[in-house]
Amino acid sequence: MLDARQLDALAAVVEHGGFGPAAQALSLTLAAVSLRIKALEEQMGQRLLVRGKRVHVTAAGQALLAHVKQVRLMEADLLAELQGGTGTRAGGRWQNLSVAINADSAASWFLPGVAAVLKKHRLLLDIVIDDQDHTHDLLKSGDVMGCVSTLVDPMRGCVAEPLGVMRYRCMAAPEVAQRCRTPSGAVSPHRLLAWPAIIFNRKDALQDVFLAQHFGLRQPRYPRHFAPAIDAFETAIALGLGWGMVPEHHPAGHPGMVEILPGAAVDVTLYWHHWAREAPSAQRLTLAVKAAAGARLLPLPT
After folding, report:
1. I need a labelling partner for 219 at 20 to 30 A (CA). Which of 5, 17, 82, 254 fits?
2. What is the pTM of this model?
3. Residue (of 119, 115, 141) closest to 130 by Cα position
């Protein structure tokens, strides 16, 4: 049997970034926290934390942290059921759920789709924004209980459920789009690459995928603006600072933008990764995520 106090000590060290802050949060001495971690490592027969200027979690430690978070969710749901007995959390304690999502999904379909469930069951979202190609790392590390990802295969103990396709178009202000065309009206890749691309962050590779798919360009060089916020990203495009890949379906539309290469798109298939054994609150979120995606994303290709 795993000792709950030892697991709490492990979680506290990771959540608070060190042994000292963990001891303070748990109202324990530094020695007591260290002894609990040491005893847990001896029981597991391997290192769980790598000590240094910064504490790093090993793969075994990450697996235990994921277990701790699942147990906490299940305990909170059980207490809510025993105290309320109605299947909802109205009037009960708020329950925290951590998820990793790409910014476009969060703004366009995820939050609008899950809002009703969050309100009904008093669920709090702790959202980590990351590129859809990298969110899976946060589930693997135990930092989140679910993620929207482009990866197809689930890791051990998890499920990957297909959500749908998010379609992106290459957009720019009208004057920028016009300058990317030849006198005959055809889009010139050389003229396009003379303009800066507006890129969400350094993990974003959609613009390179677009250039490869529709112009056959590999590892092209072009100037870049980085704007890691949805409103700043789209504002930069509308102001004529450059061109960028914008999701086709957005609640606010795309005022001030036109499509550079009409009909050309980049399709990104998304999956919802979550633990196979979910607490009831996490199950409710999973159902809401799947329903939201089914209503707002394009269907998967057959």
Report:
1. 254
2. 0.78
3. 141
